[in-house]
Write a structure and sequence with these properties.
Elements lengths: L3 E11 L13 E12 L2 E9 L6 E9 L3 E8 L3 E6 L2 E9 L2 E16 L3 E12 L2 E14 L10
Antiparallel strand pairs: 1-2, 1-10, 2-3, 3-4, 4-5, 5-6, 7-8, 8-9, 9-10
């Protein structure tokens, strides 16, 4: 995999009470250039994200270890260190401009596929805030070398 990659991240939260009763759950998707490197068998993806309605950017680092562990570290306008480990619940604090929340991430399933020019990650997890169940969530990531010509938005 080259240093310059494109990352596509799609997230879906099911079970959150919608502000509008007729509103359906819509996936949130980000497609952005990123930097990639592999060190000691761990894959790192680093990119900046502009948040709507917020000044500045959020720096993101994703660390993928094997096929059963992933970490997402965010710093800037929001901050957290989320750990996804298959069949395990992890607690962390999520810092927002409005205060901080204790969140629980109970990873139900995780699949990681690594090839020469592509990494695909699929994570299903339960999210809780202050020990109160909030939503069932899915994250799908496609990390692809920019020069591979094989970049496709989530399959």
């Amino acid at each position: 995999m080259t240093k310059d990659v494109l990352v596509s991240i799609s997230g879906m939260h099911m079970g959150i009470v919608s502000p509008q009763p007729d509103e359906e759950d819509e996936p949130i998707e980000v497609v952005t250039p990123a930097s990639y490197y592999c060190r000691n068998g761990k894959h790192y993806i680093i990119y900046d994200e502009v948040m709507e309605g917020m000044a500045g950017t959020v720096k993101n680092k994703i660390k993928i270890t094997g096929d059963d562990s992933m970490e997402i570290m965010r710093s800037g306008g929001t901050g957290t260190h989320m750990v996804f480990e298959k069949n395990r619940k992890n607690l962390t604090y999520y810092k927002t401009p409005y205060g901080q929340m204790l969140i629980g991430i109970n990873t139900k399933n995780m699949e990681v596929s690594v090839s020469e020019d592509k990494i695909n990650v699929s994570v299903d997890y339960e999210l809780d805030v202050d020990h109160e169940p909030l939503a069932d969530c899915k994250i799908r990531m496609n990390i692809t070398s920019k020069n591979s010509g094989d970049f496709s938005v989530l399959s």
